[in-house]
Design a protein that fits this description.
The complex is a heterodimer of chains A (about 70) and B (about 150).
Chain A lengths: L1 H11 L1 H28 L4 H8 L3 H8 L2
Helix pairs in contact in A: 3-4
Chain B lengths: L6 H17 L6 H9 L2 H7 L3 H18 L23 H16 L7 H9 L6 H8 L4 H9 L4
Helix pairs in contact in B: 1-2, 2-6, 2-7, 5-6, 6-8
The chains are: A mainly alpha (about 70), B mainly alpha (about 150).
């Protein structure tokens, strides 16, 4: 019981919880940047990358294109 | 707004914007402004910490928060590609700190807005502000820092 309760308490502190949300977003941005580059290296089109991410071709291209 | 900023202060803000983009944040916060100021050697010496310390501390805070919600990313630390062509806005805290900077410039009767004025504004921030959190985590003595930055004025 102790571990679960402690874990729950730690997670319910909003400063920590909200920081975790920010950290997840930052992590997602980094993974996205890394794998968009890899996808382009492997010949994926902006449209295919956009579809994989659930965003428009235009927004991916604006964000990562030259 | 940036016309009276000294070159070094303008650089600090620009580095702060870069830092936000590099970290993958949507807005430039007081923590990014702090990191931007720390790129100035004199400012870093005044605070007693380096930009590298600040970045590592921010990363460590992220990790701790993720662990608290049950996510352990271990050593995973992918490099970031900065966002291109996107104007990154400031957080409300950062905008507050920037306008407070001018108050310190005026108090010192300085003609130019110097990095130390921005640092004073950032040192005034209170938790849960991002810069305050970062400074606290790095165990920076805030009252001592404020004394150093403003001389012996109250």
């Amino acid at each position: 019981m102790t571990d679960d309760v402690l874990a729950h308490i730690a997670a319910t502190d909003p400063a920590t919880g909200l920081r975790a949300v920010g950290a997840l977003h930052r992590l997602a941005e980094r993974v996205e940047a890394m794998h968009v580059a890899l996808a382009r290296q492997q010949g994926w089109s902006w449209e295919q990358i956009g579809d994989a991410l659930g965003v428009s071709r235009q927004s991916v291209h604006a964000k990562y294109g030259k | 707004m940036f016309e009276r900023f000294a070159g070094s202060t303008r650089n600090a803000v620009r580095y702060g914007v870069e830092e936000a983009q590099r970290r993958g944040d949507r807005r430039v916060g007081t923590d990014h402004l702090l990191m931007g100021v720390l790129r100035d050697a004199d400012s870093a010496a005044l605070v007693g910490i380096s930009i590298h310390d600040a970045r590592e501390t921010a990363d460590a805070l992220d990790r701790k928060a993720l662990v608290a919600i049950g996510i352990d990313i271990g050593d995973f630390q992918p490099a970031v590609a900065p966002r291109k062509g996107i104007r990154t806005p400031f957080t409300s805290g950062a905008r507050s700190a920037l306008s407070r900077t001018l108050v310190h410039t005026t108090a010192e009767k300085s003609r130019r807005i110097l990095p130390q004025h921005l640092l004073l504004a950032l040192a005034e921030r209170e938790q849960p502000d991002a810069a305050a959190t970062l400074l606290s985590e790095m165990k920076v003595d805030i009252p001592e820092l404020r004394r150093r930055l403003s001389g012996d004025r109250p």
